[in-house]
Amino acid sequence: MVIISDTSPIANLIVIGQLDFLRDLFSEIIIPEAVNQEILFLKQSGKDIQAYENADWLKIKNPQDEAKVESLRKDLDAGEAEAIVLALELECDLLLIDERLGNKIAAEYGLHTVGLLGVLIRAKQKNIISEIKPLMIDLKEKAGFWIGQKLFDQILRDEGEI
After folding, report:
1. Is 74 exposed, middle or buried (0-12, 13-18, 19+ CB in 10 A)?
2. Would you state the pLDDT for residue 162?
3. What Cα–Cα distance (Å) separates residue 107 from each residue in 48, 89, 110?
4. Backbone dihedral angles phi then psi of residue 4, each to the nearest 5 degrees
5. pLDDT (tens digit per residue) in 117-151
6. Which of 78, 97, 137, 143 is 20 to 30 Å from the Cα of 18, by its Cα?
7. How many CB atoms are located within 10 Å of the residue 48 CB?
8. d(CA 147, CA 162)
9. Where are the domains positioned within the chain?
10. Residue 74 confidence (pLDDT)
11. Residues 6 or more apart from 12 whose CB is under 8 A from it?
12. What number does CATH give the domain 3-129?
């Protein structure tokens, strides 16, 4: 299974100290260099990214179609643009991406996407994590990840946590 990730899912899991469950869920994730650079910037912001630096299951690969990357850069940041192009080139099974516009554009190209909350749901359904609620709270409080209350409650209801 080929999994490509944009910055947000990885960066937010780094901030809450939960990066490793991605390895348990997907075994290997490929990221483009722009995503790598965006994550390395967290270190300059004072975040502990040691788990990321030690994650040999995260592979860096650059997309080849620079013209397509530049075209997507009109609407997206570098990480999103490179992740989408790399996902297309590698015919990925799943693209991890949270940003609404990036997700919409990826879907227009026929890519299958899932956001961080969808990843949490998959991890719980595969018994990799036992509860989603504490992770969603950490995402909101520690990482500043926006989750509307209606969605928060719906996920907990769907997953039998309320």
Report:
1. exposed
2. 87
3. 33, 15, 5
4. -115, 145
5. 999 999 999 999 999 999 999 999 999 999 999 99
6. 78
7. 12
8. 17
9. 3-129
10. 96
11. 98, 116, 139, 143, 145
12. 3.40.50.1010
